From TrEMBL:
The keyword Metal-binding applies. Keywords: 2Fe-2S, Iron, Iron-sulfur, Metal-binding. The keyword Iron-sulfur applies. GO terms for biological process: P450-containing electron transport chain. One of its GO terms (molecular function) is metal ion binding. This is 2Fe-2S iron-sulfur cluster binding domain-containing protein.
Length: 110
């Protein structure tokens, strides 16, 4: 059974968008940002969602419980610019019913 979730994404211009994201399409946060065109073409998901570029880095502002960071995500964030304690790669956050209420801010382009 499909279930859409409500999330908030603040784009790089500081505008907050309330988004309804599908959980039945195996999408990740980076793909949702791209599908809603919340970042200019070619500025997010440059590596195609392989945790190899950090162009989809975001700051998580909600208390949503996220999966543990993979070794690849940790390694990429250790080399990225503007990393904070709440930084995650959007390509590594799958849209599942557990992500209901997720609030993130896109990190500035580096």
């Amino acid at each position: 059974m499909s279930q859409d979730i409500n999330i908030k994404i603040t784009d790089r211009d500081g505008v907050t968008h309330e988004i309804v994201a599908p959980t039945d399409m195996a999408m990740n946060l980076m793909e949702v940002v791209r599908s809603y065109e919340l970042a200019p073409e070619g500025t997010i998901g440059v590596c195609g969602g392989m945790a190899m570029c950090a162009s989809c880095q975001c700051y998580v502002h909600s208390e949503t419980e996220l999966p543990e960071k993979s070794d690849d995500e940790e390694a990429m964030l250790s080399e990225a610019f503007g990393v904070r304690d709440n930084s995650r790669l959007g390509c590594q956050i799958q849209m599942t019913p557990d992500m209901e209420g997720l609030e993130v801010e896109l990190a500035p382009e580096s």
